[in-house]
Design goal:
322 residues, alpha+beta, 4-stranded antiparallel β-sheet, 11 helices, 8 strands, 55% helix, rod-shaped
Amino acid sequence: MKSLSFSRETKHELARIFPEKKCCRLAELAGLIRLKGTMCFNEQQTLGLLVTTESAPIARKIFSLWKELYQVEPKISMHRRKKLQKKIVYGVYSYSLPDKMLKELGLLNREGKFTMGIRKKLISKKCCQRSYLRGVFLAAGSISNPDNNYHLEMITNYYRYAQALVKVINRFPEMAARISTRQKRYLIYFKESEQIAGFLNIIGAHQALLKFENIRIMKDVRNQVNRLVNCDTANLKKVVNAALKQIEQIKFIEQTIGLDKLPPRLQEVAYLRLHNPDSSLRELGELLNPPLGKSGINHRLRKIEELARKINLQTGEKNKKD
């Protein structure tokens, strides 16, 4: 059996949530219908409302909320798309609409005209704001698998509605939803993991949030380990390159004036470096008797470097005279 995507798992979890308060159930249905609802007419020219979705759990939720809130049992239709992987589309519809329904859901204003705003009464309470946003996400939201990247978005055809939705989201602490366009449609989105986690918490997707946070922690740990490994590799590379340069300088002195001409302290370190090319400065210091610290070893190797540079200059001047 094919496993569900993270986005579908999240929606299935949200579809099982039924708010206790009537105001919250109304707010959630309003969010669902706003983005998935279509006004339609039958053969008798009776006004109806159709809500479509590709998710059976979401269709059942729309049916239950609609029936409970308005004591009207809507009908359910099913058809398979001819394109787009031939997915099944569920339709929840009714031509028996109570007079107050469209106004309560914020689809019509007081004058009976269609509106693209959000009815203030629907989102007057914090609990209703959470429910409304849950409905919007169920209708037109998606979230990327956090194993791959962090991205959550909700899509609408209307810029004014996108602006209104952003205002609702950003009422919550530390939330900063943004709007962008894609093929003449408007995206309300988050890309920061903290923002996505915050939104999942707002809409009540607690199981998805837990999974998201676990994946995020594992990714952070992996990234930290990779940074440490890269840092250690870079440091090791620096140590190796420095050691090779030091050995080159020591061999140059050996071939020109001989290491026996060096002061005893420098001679001791020179032989140690030649015989221990992979050792760090700290490890070289520990081989001395008595042991010498890292700064002491570094000081002596710098003296050797200065001496090699002087010999090289003197050799160059002598060759010019000859």
